Amino acid sequence: MTDNTEPTTGPESPDAPLHRRGIKSYVIRAGRMTQAQTRGLEEVWPRLGLTLADGRQDLDALFGRRAPRVLEVGFGMGQSLIEQAQTHPDTDFIGIEVHAPGVGKLLDEADKRGLTNLRVYREDALAVLEQCIPESRLDTLQLFFPDPWPKKKHHKRRILQPAFVELIRTRLNIGGTLHMATDWEAYAEWMADVMENAPGYTNTATAETAPYVPRPAFRPLTKFEARGEKLGHGVWDLIYRRDS
Ligand SMILES: C[S@@+](CC[C@H](N)C(=O)[O-])C[C@H]1O[C@@H](n2cnc3c(N)ncnc32)[C@H](O)[C@@H]1O
Fold this sequence. Notes:
It is built from eight helices and eight strands. It is an alpha/beta fold. Strands 1-4-3-2-5-6-8-7 form an eight-stranded mixed beta sheet, with helices on both faces. The chain starts with 34 loop residues before the first helix and ends with a strand. The model is unreliable at 1-9 (pLDDT under 50).
């Protein structure tokens, strides 16, 4: 992540989701693609890739069944998503990521492991949620280690904003959960602050650990998190349930 691109502001109100305000929560990094990643993007994409142009999805038709559904925003290189999709064949997973090598890697792995319960967008997650995911259709939305945008002048680029969590709320089923994790303490506090002020959610943490929950064993360790652990970083998990 670099910080040399200044956000531009659009005509939309400050309460609108970031992509409507011309602000991006990511920087597209140039990166060389490995052979496997290229193969994923070229050969596996037609089967598992989705675009905004596909429009609003009928998720039952997309997966050919009705199963619990998990959507992950910003899966990076996709290790955690692949592992979860493989471990939970009875759950359907949708991943959204803008970083092409990560999308290619996920597709390549999904194909090598013969996974049929996974679909992928290479798009801005906010646009996908708004335009492609119908209301009240997700059981879990995962946001693991989002870019912390540590400088104050860049806080507006943090993906977790009131408008984003309200958009997520409408896509979750009642009782569905928003699961976040970060290794940046100030971002963990920001997340808790945004969520405590977000209508329609309840924190699932117990009084002993609130607002955080102990690291759930079902969240696989990502490369990013493993690197943080080696550097002695803490990790904070937050799980909120849609109640209304
Ligand atoms: C710090 S990385 C963490 C990746 C992964 N979750 C992990 O734990 O290793 C954050 C990722 O979010 C992606 N991202 C940020 N904003 C996004 C958006 N609006 N739509 C899709 N992906 C986004 C970035 O491209 C980046 O790969």
